[in-house]
Amino acid sequence: MSAEKSFPHGDTAWFQRDRFGMFIHWGLYSMPARHEWIRNKEAIQDEDYQIYFELFDPDMFNPKEWAKAAKDAGMKYFVITAKHHEGFCLWDSKYTDYKATNTPAGRDLLKEVIDAFRAEGLKVGLYYSLIDWHHPDFTIDTLHPMTRHNSMPVEERQKINASRDMAKYRKYMLDQIEELLTNYGKIDILWFDFSYPQAKPDGKGKDDWGSEDIIKLIRKLQPHVIIDNRLDLPGASDIVTPEQYTPKRGMTDENGKPVVWEGCQTFSGSWGYYRDEMSWKTPELCIQMLIHHVSRGGNMLMNVGPTSRGYIDSRAMNRLEAFGKWMKYHSRSIYNCTSAPEEFEEPLDCRYTYNPETNRLYLHIFSWPHKKVVIPGIGNRIRYIQLLNDGSECLFTVKDGSSGTHMFEKGTPGDADVLLPDLKPDVAVPVLEIFLKQGNERGTGKKEENQLV
Ligand code: GLC
Fold first, then answer.
1. Rounded to the nearest 5 degrees, what angle is found at the Cα of 146, between the Cα atoms of 143 and 152?
2. Cis check: omega of the bond before 194, within 30 degrees of 0
3. Which atom of ligand 1 sits closest to the CA of residue 230?
4. pLDDT tens-digit series, residues 218-269
5. How do residues 255-286 score in pLDDT, each as one tens digit?
């Protein structure tokens, strides 16, 4: 038994139905366009980073376009970087001058984004960086640009830190979180990033952030908010957030109990706009990733990094549109779905999702096979099967172990052979919708093997 404290929790019911969200990383780092960690990676000091603040002017910023792109892609919620590690605030915070209002942009950009997404019916999530490389009281540590990749002697670091006061920074965070939860209506998700207590010699964790006070404040102001698990406070979070990998199985706690989780993913490796990055995933792979997340009982938060002029570039738009095209016909296998009951074994190159309310199984075929897909051990459970994209019936036989012929494999008793068209339907990932029998229902569409000859 762990001595974990117990904390009240937010509302994850909608989250587990909606499954698909948009992450937005947007800040000053969109100007150098070389990763949102650029201050760390290139050890850029405050005075040299200031140029981006002075010139930040997103003249083509139109959050209605972003919101429409997200909605058309099938996304149901979004999470935007209100403040990233660079410390720059997209909103008009009264606790800092380092904010959009004081750049050539000259206004509260966060508010416009929230209004636009809300108008499209998406739920609202805010990312708030615990790390802050601009705040004068944030002690410099192993990740901080000032240590120049830890090349600064420890004594010098200590000397600088003697004039910094994390208690003041904790207060700053509480004030800002209060502001975000007070001035922008109902917030559905708060996404804190991140803790690194293990990083030597001076990583930061829950005591540095004052995580308990943060949680208390949130639960007081907006108790339903979903909080991520990066505050380093066991038992206090609502979701687990694997990053840049897709878990092989559903995620569980240390006692093996399933947890609510959301994988966050990028189209190209970086979160902020990165002009020269070439590792863009294919649209098909992006769609497969979404399916995989839901098939393991999770959500996917797919990231876009808008340009410094304020639009989403064509590479990202192209992938968002591919999601939309696929979701138009297949969202039924994503929304309200989760992993299939354990008894259903996934066929080769396929992923299942399952809707417990309708009792339908969705078989996503990642690699189109020749003539048939074999569903292992499904026995007498199938009532009807159709291709989801056009609702056309797929005939099937359940193997009984009788001898094969030169045209039919003997197969394993209980496996079902589902006949497929030779040509893969014209969709990125075809899906079979399998209506399972309830009780003694009679199956239709089933043909004996010899009738198919
Ligand atoms: C990280 C990175 C970051 C990104 C985030 C998204 O831990 O620090 O730049 O915002 O993950 O999950």
1. 90
2. yes
3. 7
4. 999 999 999 999 999 999 999 999 999 999 999 998 888 999 999 999 999 9
5. 889 999 999 999 999 999 999 999 999 999 99
Q: How many CB atoms lie within 10 A of CB 166?
A: 18
Cα 30 to Cα 10: distance, rounded to the nearest angstrom:
32
Distance 42 CA to ligand 1 centre (A): 17
Strand 431-436 with 360-365, pairing: antiparallel
332 C-alpha vs ligand 1 centroid, how far in Å? 30
Low-confidence ranges of the chain (pLDDT < 50): 1-2, 445, 447-453
CA count, 13 A, side-chain hemisphere, 201: 9
Q: Find the residues whose C-beta lies inside 6 A of ligand 1.
A: 25, 36-37, 193-194, 243, 264, 271
CA 254 to chain CA centroid, nearest Å: 22
User: Nearest C-alpha to atom 3 of ligand 1 is from which residue?
Assistant: 271
CA of 22 to the centre of ligand 1 (A): 14
Q: What is the DSSP string of 262-301?
A: EEEE-SSS-SS-BTT---PPPHHHHHHHHHHHHHTT-EEE
Predicted pLDDT of residue 442: 66
pLDDT of residue 221: 98
Distance 266 CA to ligand 1 centre (A): 10
